[in-house]
Amino acid sequence: MDPLDRHICSHAYEQRQEHHGAVAPPLYQTSIFSFPDLESFSRAQLDERQHFIYSRGLNPTVKLLEDKLAALERGEACKAFASGMGAIAATLFSLLGQGDHVLRINQTYGPAVELLDQMARYGVSHDGISGHQDIGAHLRPETRLIYIESPSSLRMELADLEAIARIARQHGILTLIDNTWATPLFQKPITHGIDLVVHSLSKYIGGHSDVVGGAVIGNAEVIDRLFANGHQLLGAALSPHSASLILRGLRTLPVRMAEHLRHGQAIAAFLDAHPQVAAVYHPSLAQGPAAEWAARQLKGHSGLLSFALHDPSYPRVERFINALQLMRIGVSWGGYESLALSPLRPDGSGQPLIRLAIGLEDIDEIIADLERGFTALDH
Fold first, then answer.
1. In sequence order, what are the residues at sequence separation of 6 or more whose Cβ sits closer than 8 angstroms to the Cβ of residue 164?
2. 179 and 197 in contact (C-beta within 8 Å)?
3. How far apart are the C-alpha atoms of 246 and 205, rounded to whole Å?
4. What is d(CA 38, CA 216) in angstroms, rounded to the nearest whole number?
5. Is the pLDDT of residue 365 over 80?
6. In this predicted model, what pLDDT tens digit does every residue of 298-325 receive, in sequence order?
7. How far from 342 is each of 107, 149, 265, 280, CA to CA, in Å?
8. So which residues are the catalytic ones?
9. Residues 6 or more apart whose Cβ sits within 8 Å of residue 78
10. Is the dihedral of CA 7, 9, 87, 100 positive or negative?
């Protein structure tokens, strides 16, 4: 783990001398900020993106979180939002216009695809390809954004970030990546040439399954555009209280991610060797070009993975998941608890996979719980 990242998570930007030496940063739970005179207020209003006026715009607690996230991703600036979808929506609405095209690489977060479908009403089109396909062959003259998930959050697909960034720069196209799976500790896409990084802060960064938030990181000029057009006007502002919970999560992020790394690799290896498993999807098991991308881009692996059973019918997937006792059935991931879920539906539609979010419980207990699921397949 990079010592600089540990310092950023624990101490950077906190200005404790200004807060009576408080170890935990103060929570500015306020909607408005007052001024000593009308002239001061009028000057501040000239640039609301630089002054504390109303917490829909800037708030000291939220700004501390933004400063830390920008530093962790090695970006110039960050804007935090009330949810990951708030961050994605603000980015798409701020950067795209009528006639523009978005090229998606790897399986994109479902609600983001639904939003892009809705944006067809405004003349925005999109389509998707695998990270293994020829990017250049799928660009259009009207392509304005390449939207990447690497690793993605179902099959953990990878993409060559440096190659994509190089092609995008040649064509004057912006690049955006969802980096939630890896966190800034295990992957820093901006250092590989990617323009913008989006996170669901509800996942590993928050880490306790008690807060919802999102963020976008990039260069100052683009983030300022997002602030003016997507954050202020769409109104998905992160609350100060939520920001304080996410700051708390950052303090333990390096320790938690080290444990998620250990647990995720152990479970991936366990499943890969199990006779009832047909395939395991985790970057630690990547082969071919994807293995080279993982080695170059990832400094570690999180605990989100998926696998396929032999004969992955819905009744068998249901039997496996319902037999689990430690793992809970639920959406999301990145918290302290282990979760299991499947996109497969009773009518047979959806992908026949079981997705596991490996938490921080004892690794032997997690394996024993998975064995319960496999034992249930034989009955």
1. 105, 135, 146, 148, 175, 194
2. yes
3. 7
4. 34
5. yes
6. 999 999 999 999 999 999 999 999 999 9
7. 15, 19, 20, 14
8. 56, 109, 178, 203
9. 66, 67, 69, 70, 215, 216, 217, 223
10. positive
**pLDDT range class, residue 233, cuts 50, 70, 90:** confident
Sheet holding 101-105, edge to edge: 77-81, 214-218, 196-200, 174-178, 143-149, 101-105, 125-129
Q: For 176-204, give the DSSP string.
A: EEE-TTTHHHH--GGGGT-SEEEEETTTT
Per-residue pLDDT at 16: 86
Q: What is the pLDDT of residue 19?
A: 85
- The answer to whether residues 214 and 87 touch, using CB atoms and an 8 Å cutoff, is yes
Contacts with 28 (C-beta within 8 Å, 6 or more apart), sequence order: 55, 59, 60, 61, 240
Q: For residue 286, what pLDDT band results from cuts at 50, 70 and 90?
A: very high
Strands 214-218 and 196-200: antiparallel
Contact (CB, 8 A) for 359 and 298: no
Tell me if 49 sits within 8 A of 57, measured CB to CB.
yes
Altogether, the residues listed in the chain come to a count of 379
Domains of the chain: which residue ranges?
3-249, 253-376
Nearest by Cα to 193 from 164, 220, 171: 164
> Quick one: tokens of 110?
């479902």
Beta strands in the chain (DSSP E): 77-81, 101-105, 125-129, 143-149, 174-178, 196-200, 214-218, 277-281, 304-309, 328-329, 339-341, 354-357
Q: Which residues of 86-113 are buried (b: 16+ CB within 10 A; e: fewer)?
A: bbbbbbbbbbbeeebbbbbbbbbbeebe
Please count the other Cβ atoms lying within 10 Å of the Cβ belonging to residue 374: 16
Tokens of 196: 């913008």
pLDDT at 379 over 80: no
Contact at 8 Å (CB) between 324 and 340? yes
pLDDT at position 232 is 85
253-376: CATH number:
3.90.1150.10
Token pair 């320790």 is found at 255
Asked if residues 81 and 45 have their Cβ atoms less than 8 Å apart, the reply is no
CA–CA gap between residue 65 and residue 59 (Å, rounded): 10
Q: Which CATH class is domain 3-249?
A: alpha beta
